[in-house]
């Protein structure tokens, strides 16, 4: 049953993103930011864990999951450091993912010569 839920939830997320790309003037970068923010909001209200239990891999779409990671880091940092944790928590928890994205993007830009349009 979990595989079926993962299939449907992941598919519905993909359909929603495709709809936004085709029917609105939102650029892909803005849609990606919306997915991260959605993951943060779901995590903030405590709905991400039940959502993951229901949907399995379908809910661990990278951008929703990254929003969850950021929110967890902020919650932990606020508990430890107070107000300043709002600013440092996301960096601590998401540093590996951001660093990997930057390094691999740089490597890709060196290997493949991008052409500006």
Characterization of this structure:
The chain has 117 residues and is an all-alpha fold. It has one domain. The protein is 80% helix and 0% strand. It has 5 helices and no strands. The longest helix is centred in the C-terminal third of the chain and has 27 residues, at 85-111.
Total helical elements: 5
Q: Tell me the domain tally.
A: 1
Amino- and carboxy-terminal Cα gap: 46 Å
Q: Which parts are unreliable, with pLDDT below 50 for 5 consecutive residues or more?
A: none
Rough outline: globular
Structural class: mainly alpha
Q: Got a strand count?
A: 0
The ordered H/E elements are: HHHHH
Kindly state the percentage of residues in helix: over 70%
> What's the overall average pLDDT, rounded?
83
The biggest sheet amounts to: none
Strand content: under 5%
Overall radius of gyration: 17 Å
Entry keywords:
about 120 residues, mainly alpha, about 0% strand
Itemize the secondary structure elements and their pairings.
Layout: H1 2-23, H2 28-44, H3 48-55, H4 62-81, H5 85-111
Helix pairs in contact: 2-4, 4-5
Put the structure in a nutshell:
This protein is mostly helical.
């Amino acid at each position: 049953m979990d595989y079926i839920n993962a299939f449907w939830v992941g598919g519905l997320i993909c359909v929603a993103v495709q709809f936004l790309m085709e029917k609105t003037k939102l650029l892909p970068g803005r849609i990606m930011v919306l997915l991260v923010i959605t993951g943060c909001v779901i995590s903030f209200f405590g709905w991400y864990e039940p959502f993951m239990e229901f949907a399995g891999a379908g809910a661990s779409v990278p951008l929703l999951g990254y929003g969850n990671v950021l929110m967890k880091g902020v919650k932990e940092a606020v508990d430890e450091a107070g107000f300043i944790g709002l600013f440092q928590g996301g960096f601590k928890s998401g540093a590996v993912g951001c660093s990997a994205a930057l390094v691999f993007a740089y490597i890709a830009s060196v290997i493949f010569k991008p052409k500006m349009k």
